[in-house]
Each structure stands twice: as C-alpha cells, then as structure tokens.
Write a structure and sequence with these properties.
Blueprint lengths: L1 H7 L6 H35 L4 H4 L4 H37 L3 H33 L1
C-alpha cells in the first residue's frame, strides 16, 4: 500500500515548474511548423535518394508528399480536437479542484455563505410558523 501511495502521490511544488513547462509548450507551437517543414524536406530528399525506393519516386513528387503529410496532420488535429482536448480539460479541472485552486476556494466560501443564509431563512420560516400557530 505504501508503494502505491508513493507512486501516485502528487507534490505541490508551487507555480514555477508549471509556468516554465507551460511557457515552453506554448513557444513550441511556433517552432513546430518550422521543424515539421525541415523534417518533411529531409524525409522527401532521403526518400528520393534511396535506390530501394526508385519504383515509388518515379511517380511520387513533392506535391504528393506534402499532400499526404498535410492529410495526416489534419487527422491528428481532428483526433486532438475530438478526443484528447476534452479529456485534457477534464483532467485539468480535476487537478485544479484537487489542489484547491482559487476558484474552488471561492466556491467553498460561497457555499458557506449560502448555507448560513439558508439557515437564517429556515429559522425565519420556523419563527413565522410558530407565530402563526401561537396566534
């Protein structure tokens, strides 16, 4: 049981690590297309130079290659939009509430205030019922 707790326990290291990861990840959004283009050019040129692939390269031009890669990227984007993003957002929401973010603290405070108001209303109703029954 202790091994399971050690493996699955999460640590609160403050916002620094998350900030660095988030900033780096957002910067990669702009670097990824450049990297993809360079990888495409390298893969295409490597494929064209291979003797074993001459039967493909006779009819396979760069436009076909880019079209196939574009289609694969669109499929990946569709997968991310339909499957990965909702799951990721749900996981993020669970993590935020688990680690008591500002929103969950505000909700807890609002619930406490609401419970006090409901108790006051219930008490006022009881007092009115008593006055009606006594009167």
């Amino acid at each position: 049981m202790k091994i399971r707790q050690f493996i699955f326990k999460q640590y609160n290291m403050g916002p620094g690590l998350g900030m660095a990861k988030d900033t780096f990840g957002r910067a990669m959004t702009y670097q990824a297309p450049v990297t993809l283009l360079l990888m495409l050019l390298t893969a295409y040129n490597t494929m064209m130079l291979r003797e074993e692939l001459r039967y493909i390269t006779q009819w396979f031009n760069f436009l076909y290659f880019v079209g196939i890669i574009f289609f694969v990227v669109l499929l990946l984007m569709l997968f991310v939009w339909k499957v990965e993003m909702p799951s990721s957002i749900r996981m993020g929401n669970q993590q935020q509430f688990k680690h008591h973010n500002l929103l969950s603290q505000q909700i807890e405070e609002m619930e406490k205030k609401q419970n006090v108001r409901l108790d006051n209303i219930e008490q006022a109703i009881k007092n009115l019922e008593e006055k009606i029954n006594d009167g």
